[in-house]
Write a structure and sequence with these properties.
Number of helices of chain B: 0
Mean pLDDT of chain A: 95
Order of helices and strands of chain B: EEEEEEEEEEE
Oligomer: heterodimer
Distance between the termini of chain A: 36 Å
Strand content of chain B: over 45%
Structural class of chain B: mainly beta
Number of helices of chain A: 0
Order of helices and strands of chain A: EEEEEEEEEEE
Low-confidence stretches of chain B: none
Radius of gyration of chain A: 13 Å
Largest interface: A-B, 26 and 23 residues
Helix content of chain B: under 10%
Helix content of chain A: under 10%
Shape of chain A: globular
Number of strands of chain A: 11
Low-confidence stretches of chain A: none
Radius of gyration of chain B: 14 Å
Structural class of chain A: mainly beta
Largest sheet of chain B: 6 strands, mixed
């Protein structure tokens, strides 16, 4: 099993550009999550999904959109990137109400 | 908003010593989890303790939970250089609202010196 994978691993964007981060899990988990991690801030939840076709806002959803068209995939979109979105992004998945399994992260820089 | 707050922010010990990290939180919880993050990597789940449990062990890890004080501690015994990492506590809300989410603290950075 690959677990949770994230694509890409690194990306540099210019302000105003758009991009999509892809998360895939092969553990048949119902729940999936997107976090951002900034120095000294810990992890903050952006959006999450409790099943295929459902999404919900987390703590810091502004400037991001998500979609979960297939159970195994959870996409995070930035429509118009801003320097404040420079961060490391982590995807995670979990069985219902249990521990979360994290991907390796995507390091995004917005210039 | 941050629910769990770890203490200390950084800890440096010699190999073979024990390391203790603490986590405090503000509201009622369903469970509390500890995760490890090696530099440049994703988080790895270590242990989950439910609100009705007081202590749990996993190998060299011992976690305690005191719901009256809204605090938890993670003890790593006989530390090794490979334990060098950041450790995060995360709480699952016990009120029903936001029950799908975990709220993470800012972490304790542990350095184990060989």
């Amino acid at each position: 099993n690959a677990g949770v994978t994230q694509t890409p691993k690194f990306r540099v964007l210019k302000t105003g550009q758009s991009m999509t981060l892809l998360c895939a899990q092969d553990m048949n988990h119902e729940y999936m999550y997107w976090y951002r991690q900034d120095p000294g801030m810990g992890l903050r939840l952006i959006h999450y999904s409790v099943g295929e076709g459902t999404t919900a806002k987390g703590e810091v959803p502004d400037g991001y959109n998500v979609s979960r068209l297939k159970k195994q995939n959870f996409l995070l979109g930035l429509e118009s990137a801003a320097p404040s979105q420079t961060s490391v992004y982590f995807c995670a998945s979990s069985p219902v109400s249990r521990e979360q399994y994290f991907g390796p992260g995507t390091r995004l820089t917005v210039t | 908003s941050q629910q769990g707050e770890e203490d200390p922010q950084a800890l440096s010990i010699q190999e073979g010593e024990n390391a203790t990290m603490n986590c405090s939180y503000k509201t009622s919880i369903n469970n509390l989890q500890w995760y490890r993050q090696n530099s440049g990597r994703g988080l790895v789940h270590l242990i989950l303790i439910r609100s009705n449990e007081r202590e749990k062990h996993s190998g060299r890890l011992r976690v305690t939970l005191d719901t009256s004080k809204k605090s938890s501690s993670l003890l790593i015994t006989a530390s090794r250089a490979a334990d060098t990492a950041s450790y995060f506590c995360a709480t699952k809300d016990g009120s029903g609202a936001g029950s799908y989410q975990l709220t993470f603290g800012k972490g304790t950075k542990l350095s184990v010196i060989p």
